[in-house]
Specification:
globular, alpha/beta, 12% strand
Length: 186
Amino acid sequence: MDLFDAASIKNFLQKSKKEGIDILVNNAGINIINRVEAIDSESWNQMMRLNLTAPLELIQGVVEEMKTKRWGRIVNISSVFGLVTREKRAGYSAVKSGLNGLTRTCAVELGPMGILVNAVCPGYVETDLTRQNNSPEDLKRIAETIPLRRLAQTGEIARFVVFLCSEENTYITGQTLAIDGGFTCQ
């Protein structure tokens, strides 16, 4: 599905109604780096659409089935930049902070129906997006700022998300959980 296109999301949700969705992981993002004064409407709208609006539309599309089953798990992949920030991250930090707020509100509203909603806030992870936004020298410097002295691997984040989505998770909801090698502790 194309997360930039509301009709594509709606079409996906319509096709999925037969099977039903009881686990949703919103794991798509765009990070357009720019100084505050240089953020243009197009960049802002792209980040808002992909990082915040699409997750809302997907959540809206799955909660009725989850309410019927009285069980569901929603994990929004946010970012440590929804908790802290650095230069040129105003747009990204704003939309990821918004996603964290959406997560907390959904947890409060959906908890009584057995639906757990959390946000996972990865720090620096070895991904194409991280490599796209940082030079190899930058990545080396960044690793030195992390107490574990390395970037996360995607599998480390995935295993944590799997736990949050599992039946083993019975009481964690409404949380914004940093998995960042200690980056936000400093």
